[in-house]
Amino acid sequence: MALIGYVRVSTAEQDPALQMDALEQAGCERVFSDTASGAKADRPGLAEAQAYLRAGDVLVVWRLDRLGRSLAHLIETVGILEARGVGFRSLTESIDTTTPGGRLVFHLFGALGQFERDLIRERTRAGLEAAAARGRKGGRKPVVTAEKLRRARELVASGLTVREAATRLKVGKTALYAALQA
């Protein structure tokens, strides 16, 4: 069993030393790192760490937010590790999926994350239905208004191309083509 560390800082100005020190103190024999926003999906250091891990190893992070972009992403990542026989440990939160208690805590996180997603989906659907009942339609307001469409038809009838009419009306040609065909 090897402890493999993963460090992530969001910007080049941030210092990963605190995380590195904690992982070395925890006994990590190798540490992979990224300098990337938590929202970015492309993290080469994490991909390299995942490729390096073998069954029985444990991926160690300083804090949960260093690994996952969101609770859902964190749960998905740990689930993938678990399926490969790789454990997960977060030092700050004292979560260790190699122990029964750690697995329980992490599965509770998973259940809470699913509950949160379901609530958001339910509220969104209820809001859209309430807006529709009041006659409101979602989405952006059309760029090509009825007045611009009328003017565009006049310009095209007078011999201009749709592209030229779109330029004069300060709308995109694609939007104008779509409005003219509708």
TrEMBL record:
Q: Which PROSITE patterns match?
A: RECOMBINASES_1, RECOMBINASES_2, RECOMBINASES_3
Listed transmembrane segments: none
Would you kindly state one Gene Ontology biological process term found in this protein's UniProt entry? DNA integration
Domain (Resolvase/invertase-type recombinase catalytic): give its ranges.
2-135
Sorted UniProt keywords:
DNA integration, DNA invertase, DNA recombination, DNA-binding
Q: Which family does it belong to?
A: Belongs to the site-specific recombinase resolvase family.
Question: This chain belongs to which protein, by name?
Answer: Recombinase family protein
